[in-house]
Amino acid sequence: MSTRRHAPSDTPRDIDPFNAPDPIMPGGEPTFDDAEDESSDAADNADSNYHQRKRSWRTFDDVSPSKRSSAARTNTRSDTRTNAKGNGQHAVSDSAHYRTKPYQAPIEHPDAYEAPGTDGTPGMVAAERAGHALKQAKRAAKRAQQHAGDRKRNRGCLVAVLVIFLISGGISLLEGACSAAFDAVDEAFFSSPQGSYRSAGDASDGPSDEYRYDNGLTYDEADQLENDAEQAVRSQAQNDLAALVADADGTLATRLSNEFADSFQSYSGTSLEAAGIDSHEVARWVLDNTTYDVTDSLAYFDSYDSLTISATAYFDATAPDIDDVAYYVSSYIFDTFSDRYRSNMTFTADEQAQLAQALEDAEARALAEAETRSYFMQNYDIDASTSPMTITRYEEGWQDNIRSLLRLW
Fold this sequence. Notes:
Elements: H1 32-56, H2 65-100, H3 122-167, H4 170-189, E1 191-192, E2 195-196, H5 219-246, H6 251-268, H7 272-275, H8 279-288, E3 291-301, E4 308-318, H9 322-336, H10 349-369, E5 372-383, E6 390-393, H11 395-406
Antiparallel strand pairs: 1-2, 3-4, 4-5, 5-6
């Protein structure tokens, strides 16, 4: 296999990059004479190879079949050697040509193509806008710097004017102007033709009796009526509680009596008649041992265009629980008469006497355990236009207080 040899080069390979001479740059296209020399050399080599092959050719018909193949192989090898020889000669010729003249690379001259303009494209528009914004920012910075200098100069002038004003007695002038302004505001908003206005709910001193509310009362008169209403509702609550425990018509005692009978039947399994107990007496005992105390009251006008007053009375109360009395007596029956509990509950006279004593013990225990509750309150409506005042109790709230006090659920 033949090896192609490269033409030797006159330029040394080991070149110091720091001391090397200037490179020879390509100067342009090869000259016409150089192209003719290369073409003539190639033509001469082609003619020489042709004549050599022609001498070796023989007529195809004059050769036997066995020799044809041999001749074909010989010719093929001959062509191969000839071509190799011809290539070698051409290579040597080329090498000689390169040694005589340095290689000059062809230079491509630019054609008439022109790139499209970028004016109006998004990138160019963005770049122009950015440049314009930068110019505006610089101008704004310069203007701000100029304004800052102007403000400093103006501040100095204002300080100088202020100092001169204070030295020339400006403080006294300011005091007089402020005092006059305050007087004008007070006269416009806080004064009335009859005198100084004051809310009736204000408890401070200094009201004017000349001013009257829409209900015709002065501040002092309205305040006095509210105090009188508080005393009146306090007395009214006291009277209502007294009437409650007195129970002149017996209505409350009846309610308590029925409550005790139901509880006793439920706990003991027998009736009050069989046990010899009077439920009405137990109810009366509860009312007689109920105590109360009105602790406070409050009264105020709903509005100052009428004489209607709302009032509330607060009181504490203590009452024994009648349900506890029934439970304690039933517990005695269960412990003493357990052999016939809830089966044959009939009692002899001696046994009824024992139950009477058990009832007294149960009442004493319930009274000792009774707790005083202080969250009661009763509302009233008062008409101050009459003398004396007309007081009306809020009935729904009153019934709620009775049920809570005596546990009449």
